[in-house]
């Protein structure tokens, strides 16, 4: 019994020693200046879903997340544990709620710049914007993942995640190539209503998935810095040889409305039965949606298209 | 604005030739500009025949027939409908700033679509118009119910309409901010897009527009009588209230019907009648005719511009609401130059007719309101929700709580006081009950600066935000002084200038909204009063500033009591009218700017606080100022507290809550007085 207690104490001491290792402490340069951490953060708060995703990928459960219910609906994967508290909306989080959680690291983007000083009062703040003017989302997201990996002592996790994504992308590319499905460009769209779509542009996150799969984006123009453009449905008509990939969700009744419109039924892609629909993916996330999109895109193209949305 | 016609020589009874010429130019220009891009794909005959036929083997022809032609047709149809509705609204309400939007139609329509999208998406699939029309009718129903006992006097109708607009608008914004991801369609609907890919909407719409137009035309004769003013009209046996209610109902039905399909195409209902009048349409009949035609031409032109802008840029949608605003702005500015310097318009009572609440002792009222402010402060500091539930913070621990609750509370209160004061100043100066700091364009200028920053994609910190807003407000003030100098800083010209600025800001806002993403949510969050960003330094800075201005105000109450008597009387009483006006304008502007910079431009408090002061029985200037300031302070203090707690840990902009709280109280006051 005595030895058992000694052993326990020893383990505890070793654990404490491991946890307090200064390995992850250090200084990082980021968009909001420089960030000095004396020790590895234990309580991290994420103010957007890209940051939430990165933390979860690294195996760190954040102590607070902005708009956590929305995360479950729109991002879904990687899964967020039930008991993580919500700290407010993504545009105006509750500073008091964040302070109550006593975090030792806050991860946010330059969107929160007006609140930067107030956030700094609560905890060291790591500012990284995957989405901002002129940024390359996938590279930025990779950077966020590896930097958070360093800060949280999870470099291995970060590396294996990135390697896994590379592998997946390569596997899916080979699948598509083997089936000879990389010949036609694809237009990735979200229906906003029966008349308008969000079309994903070459400067967005999804382009990384298309590139890796060897697919061409039908839409040639730059979008906004989130990587999409809102366009009237007729804007996709000129790209006659492209396939249309519709990302869920679509409003109820959309299929009927489209089917009754000759404009849609005469669309070359519709005539060729090359309309595909895939499940919802969060287009403004980190590295993970790229893997998800690639897999679902390959599955859907291989399964074959139809002449309407579901 | 009616006075603009009375000064013309009586020897020119015929319609000026420029009206038909302008209309023809507008229509031809817009149609040609619309057709030209098609000529390199189809021959002229095929472009024309796209309105009734298509060649299934040629996709260009399919596109022209099912996308281009219905869009042109629906633009003309909706423009005409809105032009007609606008002309009738201005006739009924006798106010150049009034339009169907004033009556809450669009806010109501958007509310209907929002609620349906969130809670009954099946309903939208069943009929896209039903919910929008129902929403619009609910809005006008509320307005009519509230003003029923007051005989629909124009001023009360406008006020009730504005309050309903803000009220429903606040609810819409709250939904957009909390459920933005679910409401992607609403961002487009709110920005207005005429994109079509089917003839069905047009074919469904035109019979409805036709029927409503005929009904409106049947009302023309009775409406003409209204122009004589309420008492003369009544003595001629016209049932003024009934006619007004009927006309307003039809106008709203028309507006709701046309916007239900395409969303909010702003300012057509305002710009078309203003343009018709500006070009010399004088009789009610000619105003109706030309406003209708101008409306169709204007919307077609605006939609053509929107379409061009979409194709020239990165291909992303430029909503038609943006270009209608860009066209509407200059027209309103032209009107500013064209209208005579009028304080009051015939048919517009300067007071709320039948709405004279009994006077109350100012000390008692001020005391009660101050007490309520103190109570709100105590409750706000002490009783707040946390992540584990509600808890009470005793006074001894206010030190800790202060950091997150104090500065925003203080800033909100001060901004409320500033807006209450500014609103009273502006309403007293212009004699227009629609006058508000928002209308002065100061907040519009600040907002415009922020919208531009967002459009360029630069991200700025708090200091940049404050700087940009200050710069925008200062620029707007400079422009306003420049514009209003000619009119000796008087009357509705001030408000029209401000409105034009607001319109430009609105154009940018719609562009941002249609492009979607969290950028729009962020901007809306700031615009509706983001007290959560206020730091201690800012709060104390505002405190010092407001105290200084209040001191200055106390010195110049006298001019305010004299100015509304008219220029001649004021001058004869020894008041340098122009200088006095400029000084008051500057004070109002500075007050508005300081509040705007700290808590954002759209808070509605400046409009409602002066009216609340009147409801509370304060009629003279000094008393109205004090009570309006206090009421404004109370409103925003309460709003800030509520914005923090109602959906904790989410928070809403304080301005939204102020609109909800103030709106409810005002409507209650209005209905109570109606029954008395």
Automatic annotation (TrEMBL), chain A:
One of its GO terms (biological process) is iron coordination entity transport. InterPro entries: ABC_transptr_periplasmic_BD, Bact_iron-sidero_bind. Residues 43-309 form the Fe/B12 periplasmic-binding domain. Pfam families: Peripla_BP_2 (PF01497). The keyword Cytoplasm does not apply. It is found in: Cell envelope. The keyword Iron applies. CDD domains: FhuD (cd01146). It comes from the Bacteria. Residues 1-25 form the signal peptide. Belongs to the bacterial solute-binding protein 8 family. This is Periplasmic binding protein. It comes from Marinobacter algicola DG893.
Automatic annotation (TrEMBL), chain B:
The lineage of its organism: Bacteria, Pseudomonadati, Pseudomonadota, Gammaproteobacteria, Pseudomonadales. One of its GO terms (cellular component) is plasma membrane. It is a multi-pass membrane protein. This is Iron-hydroxamate transporter permease subunit. Keywords: Cell membrane, Membrane, Transmembrane, Transmembrane helix, Transport. Coiled coil: none annotated. One of its GO terms (biological process) is siderophore-iron import into cell. It is found in: Cell membrane. Belongs to the binding-protein-dependent transport system permease family. FecCD subfamily. PANTHER family: FE(3+) DICITRATE TRANSPORT SYSTEM PERMEASE PROTEIN FECD-RELATED, FERRIC ENTEROBACTIN TRANSPORT SYSTEM PERMEASE PROTEIN. Its main location: membrane.
């Amino acid at each position: 019994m005595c030895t058992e207690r000694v052993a326990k104490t020893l383990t505890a001491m070793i654990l404490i020693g491991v946890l307090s290792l200064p390995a992850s402490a250090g200084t990082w340069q980021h968009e909001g200046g420089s960030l000095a951490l004396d020790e590895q953060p234990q309580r991290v708060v994420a103010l957007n879903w890209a940051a939430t995703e990165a933390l979860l990928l690294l195996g760190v459960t954040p102590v607070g997340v902005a708009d956590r219910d929305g995360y479950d609906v729109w991002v879904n994967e990687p899964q967020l544990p039930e008991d993580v508290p919500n700290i407010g909306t993504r545009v105006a989080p509750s500073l008091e709620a964040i302070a109550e959680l006593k975090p030792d690291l806050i991860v946010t983007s330059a969107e929160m710049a007006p609140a930067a000083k107030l956030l700094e009062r609560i905890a060291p703040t790591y500012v990284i914007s995957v989405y901002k003017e002129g940024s390359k989302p996938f590279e930025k997201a990779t950077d966020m993942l590896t930097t958070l990996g360093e800060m949280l002592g999870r470099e291995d996790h970060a590396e294996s995640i990135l390697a896994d994504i590379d592998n997946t992308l390569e596997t899916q590319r080979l699948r598509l190539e083997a089936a000879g499905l990389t010949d036609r460009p694809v237009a990735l769209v979200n229906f906003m209503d029966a008349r308008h779509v969000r079309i994903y542009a070459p400067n967005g996150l999804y382009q990384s998935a298309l590139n890796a799969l060897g697919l061409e984006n039908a839409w040639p123009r730059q979008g906004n810095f989130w990587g999409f453009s809102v366009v009237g449905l007729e804007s996709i008509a000129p790209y006659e040889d492209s396939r249309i990939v519709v990302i869920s969700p679509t409003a109820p009744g959309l299929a009927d409305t489209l089917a009754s419109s000759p404009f849609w039924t005469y669309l070359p892609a519709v005539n060729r039965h090359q309309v595909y629909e895939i499940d919802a993916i969060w287009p403004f996330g980190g590295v993970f949606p790229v893997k998800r999109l690639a897999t679902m895109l390959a599955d859907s193209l291989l399964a074959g298209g139809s002449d309407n949305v579901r | 604005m009616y006075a603009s016609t009375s000064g013309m020589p009586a020897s020119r009874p015929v319609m000026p030739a420029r009206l038909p010429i302008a209309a023809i130019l507008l229509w031809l220009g817009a149609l040609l500009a619309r057709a030209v891009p098609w000529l390199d794909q189809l021959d002229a005959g095929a472009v024309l025949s796209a309105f009734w036929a298509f060649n299934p083997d040629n996709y260009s022809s399919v596109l022209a027939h099912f996308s281009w032609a219905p869009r042109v047709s629906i633009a003309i149809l909706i423009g005409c409908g809105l032009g007609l509705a606008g002309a009738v609204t201005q006739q009924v309400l006798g106010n150049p700033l009034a339009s169907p939007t004033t009556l809450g139609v669009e806010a109501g329509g958007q509310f209907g679509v929002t609620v349906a999208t969130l809670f009954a998406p099946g309903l939208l699939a069943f009929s896209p118009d039903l919910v929008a029309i129902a929403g619009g009718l609910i809005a006008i129903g509320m307005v009519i119910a509230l003003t029923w006992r007051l005989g629909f006097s124009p001023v009360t109708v406008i006020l009730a309409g504005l309050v309903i607009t803000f009220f429903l608008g606040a609810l819409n914004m709250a939904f957009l901010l909390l459920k933005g991801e679910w409401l992607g369609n609403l961002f487009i609907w709110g920005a207005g897009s005429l994109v079509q890919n089917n003839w069905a909407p047009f074919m469904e719409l035109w019979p409805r527009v036709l029927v409503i137009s005929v009904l409106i035309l049947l009302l023309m004769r009775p409406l003409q009588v209204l122009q004589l003013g309420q008492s003369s009209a009544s003595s001629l046996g016209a049932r003024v209230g009934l006619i007004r209610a009927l006309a307003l109902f039809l106008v709203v039905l028309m507006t709701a019907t046309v916007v239900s399909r395409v969303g909010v195409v702003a300012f057509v209902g305002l710009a078309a009648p203003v343009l018709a009048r500006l070009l010399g349409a004088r009789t009610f009949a000619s105003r109706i005719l030309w406003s209708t035609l101008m409306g169709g031409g204007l919307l077609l032109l605006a939609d053509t511009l929107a379409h061009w802008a979409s194709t020239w840029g990165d291909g992303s949608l430029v909503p038609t609401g943006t270009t209608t605003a860009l066209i509407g702005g200059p027209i309103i500015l032209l009107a500013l130059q064209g209208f005579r310097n009028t304080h009051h318009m015939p048919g517009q009572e300067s007071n709320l007719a039948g709405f004279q609440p009994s006077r109350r002792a100012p000390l008692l009222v001020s005391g009660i309101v101050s007490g309520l402010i103190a109570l709100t402060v105590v409750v706000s500091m002490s009783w707040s929700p946390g992540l584990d539930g509600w808890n009470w913070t005793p006074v001894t621990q206010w030190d800790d709580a202060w950091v997150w609750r104090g500065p925003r509370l203080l800033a909100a209160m001060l901004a409320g006081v500033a807006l209450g004061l500014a609103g009273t100043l502006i309403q007293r100066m212009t004699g227009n009950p629609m006058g508000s700091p928002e209308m002065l364009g100061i907040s519009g200028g600040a907002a415009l600066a922020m919208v531009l920053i967002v459009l360029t994609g630069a991200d700025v910190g708090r200091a940049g935000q404050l700087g940009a807003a200050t710069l925008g407000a200062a620029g707007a003030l400079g422009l306003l002084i420049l514009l209003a100098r000619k009119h000796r800083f008087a009357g509705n010209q001030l408000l029209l200038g401000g409105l034009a600025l607001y319109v430009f800001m609105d154009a940018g806002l719609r562009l941002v909204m249609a492009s979607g993403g969290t950028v729009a949510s962020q901007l809306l969050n700031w615009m509706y009063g983001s007290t959560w960003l206020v730091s201690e330094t800012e709060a104390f800075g505002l405190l010092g500033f407001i105290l200084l201005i209040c001191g200055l105000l106390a010195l110049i109450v006298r001019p305010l009591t004299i100015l509304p008597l008219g220029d001649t009387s004021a001058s004869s009483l020894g008041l340098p009218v122009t200088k006095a006006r400029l000084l008051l304008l500057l004070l109002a502007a500075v007050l508005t700017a300081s509040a705007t910079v700290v808590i954002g431009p759209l808070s509605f408090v400046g409009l409602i606080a002066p009216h609340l002061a009147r409801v509370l029985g304060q009629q003279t200037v000094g008393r109205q100022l004090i009570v309006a300031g206090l009421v404004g302070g109370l409103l925003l203090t309460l709003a800030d507290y509520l914005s923090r707690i109602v959906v904790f840990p989410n928070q809403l902009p304080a301005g939204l809550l102020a609109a909800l709280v103030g709106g409810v109280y005002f409507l209650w006051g209005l209905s109570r007085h109606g029954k008395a």
